[in-house]
Structure formats: C-alpha cells, structure tokens
Amino acid sequence: MRRNQEGQRPLKEQKKLPDLFIHRNVKKAGIIACFFLIPQIAAWSTDKIWNFNPDLQRAYQLVLNLQPEAAMAQLGKVTDQSQEFYKTYLLALNETIDVLITEDPKKFDLLEVNFKQRLEWLDKLDTSPEVMFLRAELNLQKGFNLLNMGQEFNAVFAIRRAYNITHDCIKKYPDFIPIKKTHGVLQVMLGSIPEKYAWFMSLLGMRGSVAMGQKQLTDLKNSKSSLHQEATILLFTIKGFINQFFGEASKGMLEYLKEQPENRLGLFIAINMLMKDSQTEKALELFQTLEKNNQGLPVYYADYLHGDALLQKGEYLKAITYYQKFQKGYRSQSFKKDSFYKVAICYWLLNDVNNSKINFEKAKTVGKESAEPDKYAARQLEETQMPDPKLLQARFATDGGYYEQAKAVLQSIGATELNTKKEQAEFLYRKARLAHKTQDIQTAKSLYLQCIAFTKDNPWYFAPNSALQLGYIAQDQKDYLQAKKYFEQALAYKRHEYKNSIDSKAKFALDQIKNASKG
C-alpha cells in the first residue's frame, strides 16, 4: 500500500484525529492562521540577537508583503555562502506562505520534497542554536501546511517535533533570543487549545501557557533583533484573538503601520483587529489601501472581511459584490457556507425574497462546518422561519460600531413583533451588547442576566456569551470571585454555535485570574 514521505498512509486511509488545532485561535479565519501563527523569518549567525544584511532584509520585506515571486528573485541575488542558512529559511518561508494562501496541491508536493532535503542537510551539521532553531521552524511550518491541507494526523506530529526541538534548544542555549519566537508561538497555541483536547496534548507530552508565550514574544519585540517586527505582529494578534484586548491590539497594529504603511500583512491584521473592536469605519479606510497595494498573492479572505464590513455598515449590494469575489477566488471550503448565508441575508434585508431564498438554499449545500461562522450559518439554515430583519440590522450595526443606528433599530421593535422565544432571547442579548459597547455597564449587566435566565438551556450562544461578558465586567472591576463564577458558567454550556471560541476565551480568562491571585 502506497505511503507518503512521512511513512503514513494516504489521507483518506488515516484515522481522523480530533480537530485539535483547527479552532478559533489557529484556523478561525482560514487564511488568518498562516499570517498570525507562522514564525516569519530566521537568520544564520553566531549573534544571539540576529540581524539581517540589506539584501536579506529586502527579501524579508517582500515575503511579509506577500510577494513570493519578487522575494524569490531577490533571494536569487544573494550568493554569499555565509548567508546560506538565512537564504534557506527565507526560501522555505516564502514557499510556505505561497502554499497556505493558494492551497495549490502541486506547490504543496514540491514543498514536501524541499522540506525533506532541507532537513537532511541540517542533520549533517553540528548541533548549534541556529541549526536547532531552523529545524524547529521548518517543522512548525510543515505542521501548518499539513493542517491547511486537512492532514491533521501528520500535522500534530510535525508540531510535536518542533515543540521538542524548541524545548531542547532553550535548555541548551537559554540566551539565544530567536528561539523565543518559536517557543512563544507554540506556548500560545497549546495554551489555548479547548479543554476537551487537553488530554491528547498531555498524552503527547505537550503543554502550553498563553502568558508564557506572550512574555517571550514581548521580550523579542523589545529586542534589537531583526525578528522584532514579526514578534510585534504576533503579539498584537494574540492580544486580540486570545486575550480579547482588541482596543490594545488595534492601537498596536496602527502604530506598526506608521512604520510600514503599505505592508499587506500588517494591513490585513490591523483590519481584523479594528473590526473586532467595532471600528469598521476605520477598517474600511485600510481596505482601500490594501486594494491599491495589490501586488503579489491575492488574499481572498480579505474580500470576505470586506463583505462583512459593508454588511455591518448597511451597504448590502456592495457587500454582496465582495462576498461573491471571495466565493470565486477562495479555494478552501471554510467560510463558504457563511458567505452564501450572508449574501442571502443581504438580499433579505434588501427585500429581494427570491434571491435571498436562492442563496439560502445554496448555503445549505456548499462548504463545510469547521469554522465557527460556518457552524453558526448551518444552525440558522435549519430554522424554518426567516430571521427577523430588525434583529439582524441591530446585530451588524453593533458589531461594526454604528451604535446610533443600532439603538434606533432596537427602539423600533415593538413588544408584539418577536414571535419566538429565540427572537425574544436575542432581543435581550442585542440590547445588552449595545449597552456594554457604549459603556452603560449597569444596564448591560442587568440585560445579560435577564438573557441568561430567559434562555435557560436552549442551544443558543446568547446565554454562554452573556456569562462570558459578565465575567469580563467583573474582571475589569477586580471582582475575581464573581469573574471566576461567570467564566466557569460560560464553560458549562454544552451545546451552542460558538462553543470552541467561548470556551477558549473563558479558559484563558480563568488562567489570568489564577496568575493574578498568585501575584
């Protein structure tokens, strides 16, 4: 029976492992994973700090700007043999990002061949911190590529190799600065895995701590290393998606863009953080810059986000255009179901019932339910009743930071307009979210509690997320006992669309409280 290069059976014959890493913090945004959690560049030097020469720095900037062909041409100009390790890493990184974005199987096969050759070359060299760092980075990149191609089994063990090499490097060479990036990323990844998978990671001998990972990335960010740029991007991404400090993350990324105003990776991540912080209007400005600076690989996931931004603003026809652009270009099945669902929603809000129904039916048959937006869309598509348009408008306007618009819509909803218990629960939840976003904390607390009591054990995310938000409020007020109670309550809900992400947020918040009590 034919086996692949790792000696494993082909994918269709593998026993499928749990979806260990394809969760909110690693593969939440499909393509986001390749930008946020891949350590970006290493260099070969005896210097514990590591700084790149001008030629490599130019190549590095092209890689981060998602221009693989231009980066390859620049690397071809580097002929100094003393720079071979830097060059090898950049070639691998360039290929990895190309594969992760294009999802081209032929490029993936070539990358597998190159990966094997590079590791064989490294295995012939004497052990050094540089060699160990490069081996760990290559294995981590391989793990992300395997995840993206759906090969979770092989991906877990590639990441485990990176984990073991990184730990050995830190023990042998504790003053070697670059390894903090690899170790920091792995710590964040493993520290944010949902509780139900922790047993499997423990079985493989892998443990993580988000706090430790952030500390290491902060150390690297504040160093004089050329790697500080990636550490900055990674750190603010983590502060956003894991810590939920979207305001801090947005501010940090906007500061980064002052130095790199047209960097496509920086623009893409800043847009993500701004939208999560309900600053959609500012995100729309950055979309314009990103569209003008369109050289290199097309980032179709940005079109999906652009559609979301326009949906939040209420520009439904424009939103449809971007969702359809995403659907045509994006190869992965993730977010496809949600994009068709949202196109249907746009038509529904435009009172175009026919096109709305066409896209609702299409959404039922396309994509898969691995990403949480797709899971949410699938749940909504099971409903026999069309969604209430006013609740939809209030939701999207609140998410985008259009608070006056959201307030006006919620105030226009009469007591007899909402016919189902789910709609009535959502009405309480939407009012709570708007009050929370506009800093009316007492009203928000009251409405969250009403939502929890009204929802009871129904499988909707309104109650678990209300508990999570009450935990954040108590945490901000330094009432850690109350915060702990609410975070544990959020974890206790067994069935809802956003369980992985809410559980991950609650788990991290409980870790923060635990560390604060130790301090």
What does this structure look like?
The longest helix is centred in the N-terminal third of the chain and has 21 residues, at 152-172. Residues 1-45 have low confidence and may be disordered. The chain is globular. Helix 4 runs antiparallel to helix 5 (84-102) and helix 26 runs antiparallel to helix 27 (499-518). The chain has helices at 24-27, 32-36, 54-64, 68-76, 84-102, 105-123, 129-148, 152-172, 179-191, 198-203, 210-221, 228-241, 246-259, 264-276, 280-292, 300-313, 316-329, 336-349, 353-365, 372-381, 389-400, 403-411, 421-437, 441-455, 462-476, 480-492, 499-518. It is mainly α and 519 residues long. It has three domains: 14-292, Serine Threonine Protein Phosphatase 5, Tetratricopeptide repeat; 299-387, Alpha Horseshoe (Serine Threonine Protein Phosphatase 5, Tetratricopeptide repeat), CATH 1.25.40; 413-519, Tetratricopeptide repeat domain (Serine Threonine Protein Phosphatase 5, Tetratricopeptide repeat), CATH 1.25.40.
Could you give a quick summary of the protein structure above?
This protein is mainly alpha-helical and about 525 residues long. The protein has helices at about 25, 30-35, 55-65, 70-75, 85-100, 105-125, 130-150, 150-170, 180-190, 200-205, 210-220, 230-240, 245-260, 265-275, 280-290, 300-315, 315-330, 335-350, 355-365, 370-380, 390-400, 405-410, 420-435, 440-455, 460-475, 480-490, 500-519.
